[in-house]
Amino acid sequence: MNKEGSAMKNYLSGTRKNICVMLMVLAAATDSYAQPLPWKSGILLDEFIFEKAPFPESHAATIAETPGGLVTAWFGGTKERNPDVCIWVSRQVNGKWTAPANVADGIQDEKLRYPTWNPVLFQVPGGDLLLFYKVGPSPSTWKGWMKTSPDGGVTWSKAIALPGGYIGPVKNKPVLLANGNLFCPSSTEGNGWKLHFEVTPDFGKTWRTVGPISDGKTLNAIQPSILQHGNGKLQILARSRDRALIESWSYDNGETWTTPTKTTLPNNNSGTDAVTLKDGRHMLVYNHVLPPGTEAKGPRTPLNISVSKDGRTWYAGAIIEDSPVSQYSYPSIIQTSDGLVHVVYTWRRLAIKHTVIDPSKLKLKKITGGTWPGIKGYTAPVATEITKDGGE
Description:
Blueprint: H1 3-34, E1 43-48, E2 57-66, E3 69-77, E4 86-93, E5 96-97, E6 101-104, E7 116-123, E8 129-135, E9 143-149, E10 160-161, E11 175-176, E12 182-188, E13 194-200, E14 208-210, E15 221-230, E16 233-240, E17 246-250, E18 261-262, E19 273-276, E20 282-286, E21 303-308, E22 314-321, E23 328-335, E24 341-347, E25 351-357, E26 365-366
């Protein structure tokens, strides 16, 4: 056999080996996917909103269902607090997300520009899509702004300034109550962390405030989300510096609230979100992480889903992300008209991810004493600080 023939024989032999290896890998992968992965039951899809973007960092995503499909927004730029940080929007069209579009910035004039922060989307039933966001050098100096879209996020109005002292929903979506009030969960950070609500009966034309309901001294809590228990009974769950999620209750459609107290669920001083499902249950997305020692802040991983019937007893449902490389944070959660649940969240500050969950397929285990329950075949990773958990 000549050299060319020998070379060809070796090439074909190597190719066959590579093909065999590929087939074994595929077989193994197929077999592993055939078996339910621990804490993944009910998770139907996990995807990135974008693959390429004109900004290196992104954070604080929000999501809404419009008549034309899903819309998500977040802030992105060089780095949180940098003046080039803008609000970006992506729409789901035919099952795919559109490229990020810059819809709001913090330009004040030719010489002054501030960063934008924490967008929040809300679809008015039968009306416009609302986009709330903040502009300012820091959370204690935020000013609230709003834009509206008549076509599900394709086009946007000019920026509309909220009244002085108002910032709108600080991180999590508003809730439209049966009495017509759009209740925006909000908070301030300037003189202690305090919880309050900003209420509009006409989708942003006029406003009033309820609260603050906390003094920023006994407990330090911000960024609440609202759950609805029926007959005017509401509950908030909020981020805190106190190593636990904070709750408060209202029995009169949010006009008065109980003194905020700690729940049994841990909080790592990072944002959470929650939603009341169509079947009356409540779903919470958060980092089920107790900070180390006596510290107030912990790694932002894993990212968990819990479910409750009454807002007090919680059941572990799923783990969306559990890599030891933090962070997976600042989630936003909604239930769409088809009954599925959608979560968007920060992925290591580098991207925004989207997860779809079928709540009927979650395998729930009771959370006792604030400890995530063990499950056969699953070991929780030890978080690392490869990605810094800084900023908001």
